[in-house]
Give the backbone structure.
Amino acid sequence: MEILEAINLVVPDGLLIPDIAVCEADAAAEAGLTLNAHDVLLVVEIASPSTRVTDKKMKPALYAAAGIAHYWRLELDPAPRLYLGRLENGAYTDRLVQAGETATIGRPFPISIDPAHLSHR
């Protein structure tokens, strides 16, 4: 697997630039500046005041329509929290993980994560 930052991602309705995209290594090697949505296992958006609405409302629908199985959204304010979205029936079902909680995840790859450790506060 490869982790790519701010890559052009082709989805059915156009082009998006996720903060982070995780894909298979072969797809990353061939990607250049653009990656196709069908090669992506996970996208992560880090919400800021200027992107919060887009990251919460618009992007999940576009990523879901593209068939991306996992969409995570990290919100840092007022405290770090991570929304772990898994695609089910055409939409993401979110699991909220608050700062101080550790989530153990098996897909798209095994990881244990506490949102409190994702901030430099």
Remarks:
- The longest strand covers residues 40-47.
- Helices lie at 25-31, 52-65.
- The chain has one domain: 2-118.
- The two ends are 29 Å apart (CA to CA).
